[in-house]
Every structure is written in C-alpha cells, then in structure tokens.
Amino acid sequence: MLELYYFPGSLCSQKVKLVLAEKKLKWSDRLINLLTFENLQPNYIRLNPKGVVPTLVHDGKVICDSAMIIRYLDEEFPNPSLIPNELVLRKRMDVWVDLQNRFPMREVMYGNYKGIDGIVLQRSVQIKEKLIPQLMQANPELKERYAAKLEDVKQWNQTIRDSQKIADINAQIEPLLEQLEHQLSQTEWLCGETYSLADVVWTAVLNRLNELNFGYLWKDNSQSKIARYFQCLKDRPSFQAAIQQDKMPLFMITAGLRRIFLGF
Ligand SMILES: N[C@@H](CCC(=O)N[C@@H](CS)C(=O)NCC(=O)O)C(=O)O
Questions:
Q1: Which of 37, 52, 151 should be mutated for ligand 1, with most atoms under 8 A from CB?
Q2: What are residue 55's DSSP bridge partners?
Q3: How much is the pTM?
Q4: pLDDT tier at 70, thresholds 50, 70, 90
C-alpha cells in the first residue's frame, strides 16, 4: 500500500507523482493543505520532521524527501527502471538531480509569483513565523523540530522580502539552463538515450519555470534543445497525470484563503 502525503501543485510532490505515473503504480492520496499549515501540525511533524511535503508511506514505512522517495520507488518497483544501468550514467543522473535540488526553487517561486498568488504565498510564510513558536510551546517534545523549522522559515522570509536577493537568484536561472542546453545538445535525455529520474525532476522544474514566465529563456530561441526536450516531457502520459491534473480542490483553496486572510 502506497500513501502519498502531498499538496496539489507542490513542485516536490509533482516529482514523486511523475514517478508513480511512469511506473503506473496505484497509490492513495493524503492531502496536506500547506495554506492552512497542516504541515506544521504535531501529527505531521512527527511523520515528516521538516514539516514539508511530500512524504511517502509504503506498507507503514515512512520515506521523506522527494529525492529519496523517487529513488526508493525505483528500487522497490523496478519496472520500468528509471535509473540507468551504466555506472557513469547513474553518476550523471545523481549530478543532475543534485544540481536541481541545490537550486533555490522555493525562493524562485515565493519571490516571483505575482498578484493574488504572490500575496498568498508571501503571507503564508509570515504566518508560519508567528505560528511555529506557538506550536513549539504547545508541543515541547517536538521542540527541536520546530526550532529548526523556525530558523529555516525566518531565512526564507528574509530572502523573499529582499528584492535584490530575488534578482540575484533569478540571475542564476539562465546559466543553469545553459548547462541543461549543453547536455541536451549531446543526448536525447539527460542521461543518454533513456528517460531517467533526472528527467523526472527537470520536468517539474521546467514546468514551474514556464509557469513563472521564465519560459522565454528557451522559447525565444528556435534552435533551443530545451524547447524540444520540454515538449517531449509534456507529451508523456505521466505529465498529464502528475502535473496537468494536479489541481487543488476548491475546499482546500477556500480553507486556505480563509486561514491566510481571516486567520481561522
Ligand atoms: N527537500 C524536500 C523539500 C520539500 C519542500 O520544500 N516542500 C515544500 C513544497 S514543494 C513544502 O512542503 N513547503 C512547506 C514548508 O516548508 O513549510 C523534498 O525534496 O522533499
């Protein structure tokens, strides 16, 4: 039995959903509403110490962190395998997954969404900063986990309020995509001739960059290998299942807006 704790639209959850779809696995959804801070509640912090989505529970075994989860799924359900056989290609896959993981996509998202989405996201981080100390006081046995979360949230809040920092982070996107472009001028997929976990994580990232209007970085160039690659990723049935159909139910939106703007 596979259960996925996730928030619709969350980038890290989409990576896991892509793998589940590629492998045609059946799973049960456990929705966690980040907009009502369900991820900060003691029960969830006990499951996932960092209070983030996604979390996978497989026959009672808990696996946190999308990069760990996608590898775990590939080991447990190796058909079709999304990890190359050749050692050198496996190493290359790790490099592409790590490169993506180290890139501050969270700050790119929270710093660049405009309009109501931007306001909701930025307010949500401010509310977290006030809420965590209260939860920490009410749940002393989880003090260390909450303290670590609070440190992270403070940093996060500072960064997204600092337009220069966001501009500096945004300036790193183009060089990152140049590396991708270079790789794709040599191979069809990131790790050679077959689709791998590296392509999974970059599917979610390219899609998010496109949503945030960074798509011009590849769309404006008719020779762009990324444009061709992104189209191939979007043509896969997993993209439909994991990303296009990944819509937040209305009840989560209304509960989130009420919590963020009215405080209950
Ligand atoms: N390294 C983690 C990061 C997970 C993460 O940051 N998830 C975001 C959603 S994409 C989240 O839960 N944010 C809520 C929060 O940090 O309070 C992973 O890859 O699973």
A1: 52
A2: 5, 64
A3: 0.97
A4: very high
